[in-house]
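re: that chain from earlier
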Amino acid sequence: MTESRKDTTVTDTIGDITKAAEQEVSRGFSTRWPLNSTFIFTFGALGGMLFGFDTGIISGASPLIESDFGLSVSQTGFITSSVLIGSCVGALSIGALSDRFGRKKLLIVSAILFLLGSGLCATSTGFLMMVAARIILGLAVGAASALTPAYLAELAPKERRGSLSTLFQLMITFGILLAYASNLGFLHHNLLGVRDWRWMLGSALVPAALLLIGGIMLPESPRYLVNKGDIRNAFKVLTLIRKDVDQAQVQLELDEIKEVAAQDTKGGVRELFRIARPALLAAVGIMLFQQLVGINSVIYFLPQVFIKGFGFPEGDAIWVSVGIGVVNFVSTIIATLIMDKFPRKKLLIFGSVVMTVSLAILAVMNFVGDVAALAVPTMILIAFYILGFAISWGPIAWVLIGEIFPLSVRGIGSSFGSAANWLGNFIVSQFFLMLLDAFGNNVGGPFAIFGVFALLSIPFVMRFVPETKGKSLEEIEEEMTRR
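^ sequence. v structure.
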């Protein structure tokens, strides 16, 4: 009898909370904050656009900075890769902070760091100041890369989580394309007596301001709110972003989140290694492979490749990067449309095969052919390589690190995965120009190495990466903790 009365009290309490939340919604939560799901997911992914913009903008600016500051090749490479030092630190530190303070607050902090770093980059007076500014910018990029996938995954319904989480990668490619367009627009235009590369780097202030405005208006993750015991606001957010379902279905989703959250222990590094080792291995591995296939050698250094390898003038080389940026963006749109129609693992393997074949042909061709006549075939093969990456490894790696970790360590787990990405990114970006120089500016050398990693990624996916398509985060958590 006592137990029955206790159950009734618990039920009544939950009912009271639900009624209170419904009354809040009916009073107009979405009119006080005039948001809809399109706004939320678009602005939630805006960190990806800044990620892409700030990594892509340096490709056109670096030859100009090198000339203006009289830098060596290694110094230019370090300016490019120094952002990755900050990114590793930002990615590793932001996870624990987001698990403690929430995804929304840390997105706002990231936006402020983007503004500070972009402003300092544009006003740098020498090598050391530029490196310091790029490290600050890296803190923001790393934070956004760890926060955004987890945030989007926690907001999205399971049926559309793949395509909605792919918005992060779509925004990255859009940011890269905007950066290339900015490079092209400001090249040789020293407006108001200010050097063109300063305008290129300073243009990042515009999307950074948008992220700050969006971050202030975005809701907190409902799963984070449940984990902190704020059931009322979790219900409000779910109601706001699930307008295509009725209140009963929202309540069912909330109940599932609460059930899993009740089983979770306190998150931390020790807990991450204890309960989430299979997820951690998959996340770190997939993020390392995403970079070691060489994608950012193209994003950062494509103009340098065509200037040094094929003798292109600066303007023509930037036009090549714009064309590749268009391929990258359009391919990611395709990935967004098909992401929830095909298993994640099959798409990853397909992308690895396309990249391996493209890179192998490109390497052999540049070693045995007449390099002077190979500029156009090289562009075509790089475009196919980008296509293979953009419909598979580009978006899916970020989708997966937001999906596969338990709720209690999702923030810190995403941080470790993101930090692995930045470590691989640093290795590729720091040594690419040196490799290119070691092979006598023949692109076949470094791209052959990237092709080997593309091939090795296939058995890794088959052995260690889980299939997550169509499953709720709670179902994935249950499966991963059984491994």
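The mean pLDDT is 80.
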